[in-house]
Amino acid sequence: MGRRKENITYPSTTFSASVREGSMGSGLDFASSLSGQDASGGVVEHYRPRVSYYMREQAGNFHYGKQHPMKPHRLTLTNHLVLNYGLHKYMDVYEPRRATEEEIREFHAEDYIDFLKRVTPDNQDQMRTCFSEFNIGDDCPIFDGMWDFCRIYSGASIEAARKLISGSADIAVNWMGGLHHAKKYEPSGFCYVNDIVLAILQLLRYYPRVLYVDIDIHHGDGVQEAFYTTDRVMTCSFHKYNGDFFPGTGAIDEMGSGLGKFFAINVPLQDGIDDRSYTQLFKTVMTAVMETFKPGAIVLQCGADSLGLDRLGVFNLSIAAHGECVRFMRRFGVPMMVIGGGGYTIRNVARCWTYETGIVCGTELPPDLPPTVYNDFFAPDFSLHPQLSGRVVNHNSRAYLNALTARILEQLRYLKGAPSVQMQEAPPDIQGFLEDQEGHDKDVHSDRNKDEKDDRASKREHIAEFYESDHDQDQQDGEQDEKSSGMPK
User: Which domain holds residue 404?
Assistant: First the structure.
């Protein structure tokens, strides 16, 4: 596929005293320190991937409920920033089809799918006896269009995987996806259909080994559970863990079982981790993972609830540090899916995913946000890199991070190299499907003039968004403290 890779200078495997515990600094300062070079002092990159981007306008119109922290409207904010930054010029933009029931059934149980198809807000009282069986409640409510929402975001992830398989893209971006908690038989943590598992199942039809990386603040339990007994998928999750924080899994000794023994990597972190500690840890672990596992494809879940000041989060990461994880994985030159996930202060979610779209395209974005019809969401600074760090004390000492790193590297040594897999040629229906679909994919490049026209309109509010204040600024301090240990992603 003509991918170019460069030599990368990797970081050391321990945390030097030069990285001060609790060291802060603005996200813009951190971004400036990384501009044009690897954060570890490496060379300027020359990898120029082909990027495909998946968006569907309807995805931002769904509404979980007035008090629910999950707000799909964040997708609308993200797409407006992406288009108005002009990033569509650097990638192929597609409106993906919906996933079929048969595709969703490749992972999820038939009776659970039947329930999702049939239940609506109008008939939920008649079906309430099924709620306990399918884990329906405050975290996973019944809302209008729920099944359609699942088909939209799952279809995009499946299409993204197939685009990588076909060789027509090196990186595929789907911010609608990343719902990593959904289980085979039930929803969990705001997630109903696990689009990540569905996408990885597609990738496994072509690639011998797939690496799943999760930087959401919550453990990627649904994906880990799905592939816990296989050595063809390695899951690697960086998350808060204390035994109580949702979903309560993700301890370092959860390593997989059977053939999958040692192929589940968990990086449990404490409150308040900062930019330099997180990025150094991430690069150290992922360098070892890539050298040991040698994946044919990567799925990177970019949950933005690990940012500082997230309504449900307790980390101190800036947008620049979060994006540096994306930049680092991009530099390996391995086919990669980049997907969304958590994130509940939606103005910062949109900033973060826009910044990371620029990273995968190899484009530096100006720090001042472009004007859109949703300008008021980003007041008062209108900046791509607001100050997000410093609210939570960093409880991750150097000693703890060094011990954590050593334990993970020891686990990887047990693998003794990447497993070999006897592979056949890619199933012909994948390629045939792609050829049929190529003519029907809607390239929305032509819609940018319409978007620019819409942005000049006077519209401010969105039908799917509940405003807790005039412009959903999330009552930054009070609500964040009250809900930081509340409902998950």
Answer: 27-483
